[in-house]
Amino acid sequence: MKLRVVVLGIPGVGKTTVVQSLVSMLPGAKLANFGTVMFDEAKTRKWVHDRDEMRKLPVRRQKALQERAATRIARMKERVVLVDTHLFIRTREGFWPGLPFEVVRALKPTHLVLVEASSDEILARRTADKRRYRDALSEEQLDEEKALARSLLAVSSSLTGAPMMVVDNAQGKSVEAASMVAKALGKA
User: Fold this and answer.
1) Would you list the domain boundaries of the chain?
2) With left for phi above 0 and alpha for psi between -120 and 50, is residue 28 left, alpha or beta?
3) pLDDT 10s digits, 33-67
4) 101 DSSP 8-state letter
């Protein structure tokens, strides 16, 4: 059976770190970073020069990039594909879903995993990450984003029929979080 595991989380939860640990636990697993695939598409169209500029694009362009990225990822032949992405993107026009119907239909996930962390840990991680430009948010705004992420996780699970799980990625515990996911996949 092919596994298409979509790992989600708001920026700063340590989602990518958890996914990287998970890749090392699942022999032959392929990592597909959804944002990187979108960025490659955006660069070929000369729409952006920096990955963080994508969320500033008009929603119609973001939608086109999402659909192209989902199609490319769905074509991957590996038995296990781990998709690292977000449930939503904060745009000028409001929150744009990271997994709208067309995208989730193209990806055909077998599992949905939401990575979470406390708001104070997220703020500290965002501040420490100098590689990316992140919007400055308060703890209250992060709490709202985390609640929205859980809501969109439930909707995505309902649309796809894929089981959903939530894992906590406390500081220094990414391997443990990845182990929980591997166990849920029957791979631990």
Assistant:
1) 3-184
2) left
3) 999 999 999 999 999 988 888 878 888 898 899 99
4) H
Residue 131 CA, chain-centre distance (Å), reads 18
Evaluate if residue 92 carries a pLDDT over 80. no
The Cα 68–Cα 58 span in angstroms is 16
Whether 181 contacts 80, CB under 8 Å = no
Q: What is the DSSP string of 143-170?
A: HHHHHHHHHHHHHHHHHH---EEEEE--
- Planar angle of CA 167, 112, 5, nearest 5 degrees: 105
Between 161 and 137, residue with greater pLDDT? 161
163 is written with which tokens? 């089981």
Position 135 confidence tier, pLDDT thresholds 50, 70, 90: low
Domain 3-184 has CATH 3.20.20.70: no
